[in-house]
Amino acid sequence: MASGKGTMEAQERITRREPVQLEDLPADVVVLYARELVPEGMWSSAREHLHDLGDGTTHWVSENEHRFDSRVMRLLAPLMRGAFRKQTLAHMEDFRAFAEHGTAVRETDAGGHGA
To answer: pTM (2 decimals)?
Structure first.
């Protein structure tokens, strides 16, 4: 992942997906993805809820939790809350561009958010 001038490497895994089968879903079904991201020094969890609004639009709710190994980062984390929100929104916008227009962030945004 790249963010500004920094980069990090992490393992991500989907821990839950409901429903398991995503083909031919009725419009009233809420799709849930839960995932964990584990870079060095921290743990991050995200729960993504996707609601089909039935008019060609989707309402996306993203709940994120971050935990840090170092005492310094645990103390700084509350001060960085805005930066975490801004980064999450940037990733959501990147995915939206991909989903709606096929824009691949890695190909078009050399110094960008990463994907």
So the answer is: 0.68
